[in-house]
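Thread amino acids onto this structure.
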């Protein structure tokens, strides 16, 4: 379908409206005609900014990721905390838009994050982390964050006692005991998962220790 010669709406308005529909009505309710009606234009008007629905969904995914603020931390021996904070900010942004979680999995191209990866790689360099570990850290952080947070987003919110739901103390006594002994929330478990990953990379590489590892040992 050809795009109109002049835009009737801005790209940012369309993306914000699409995210609003997904947040309030669910991803299954979203369509280009539904979006056009929501912002008071005809569907062809959307094609000025987007070639198709896939391009719009990529823009929605980018919008959600953009809400995850970059940490304000100087490079140094506690560099791992930069990534802990970045991971927590990412988690907060995703859980703010739970219905959009599948969009990130399907529509977020890795190229969108290249600028952030470049910033993170420069931070690692300035912190003295060997360059040979940068790809392992950045790729691992992406996989860990996307896997953990998107899984959490599509599940019902849980407490420490219901992180594993519907555990029967009679038929699953070991799991029941584990849940009773757990003192960490989903957020804290995720936070410690990031630290464990980063500390493990450095230990296996025989590289300089992370300063925060001594504090948490």
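Threaded sequence (217 positions):
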């Amino acid at each position: 379908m050809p795009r109109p010669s002049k835009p009737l709406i801005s790209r940012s308005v369309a993306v914000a409206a699409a995210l609003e529909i997904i947040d309030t009505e669910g991803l299954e309710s979203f369509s280009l005609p539904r979006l056009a009606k929501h912002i008071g234009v005809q569907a062809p008007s959307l094609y000025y900014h987007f070639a198709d629905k896939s391009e719009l969904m990529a823009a929605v995914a980018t919008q959600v990721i953009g809400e995850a603020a970059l940490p304000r931390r100087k490079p140094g021996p506690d560099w791992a905390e930069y990534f802990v904070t970045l991971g927590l900010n990412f988690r907060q942004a995703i859980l703010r838009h739970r219905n959009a979680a599948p969009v990130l999995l399907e529509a977020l191209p890795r190229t969108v994050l290249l600028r952030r990866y470049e910033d993170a790689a420069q931070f690692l360099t300035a912190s003295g982390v060997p360059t040979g570990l940068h790809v392992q850290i950045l790729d691992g952080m992406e996989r860990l964050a996307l896997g953990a947070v998107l899984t959490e987003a599509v599940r019902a919110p849980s407490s420490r006692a219901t992180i594993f739901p519907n555990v029967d103390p009679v038929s699953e006594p070991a799991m029941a005991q584990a849940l009773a002994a757990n003192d960490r929330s989903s957020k804290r478990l995720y936070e410690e998962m990031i630290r464990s990953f980063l500390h493990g990379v450095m230990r296996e590489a025989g590289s300089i220790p992370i300063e925060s590892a001594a504090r948490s040992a």
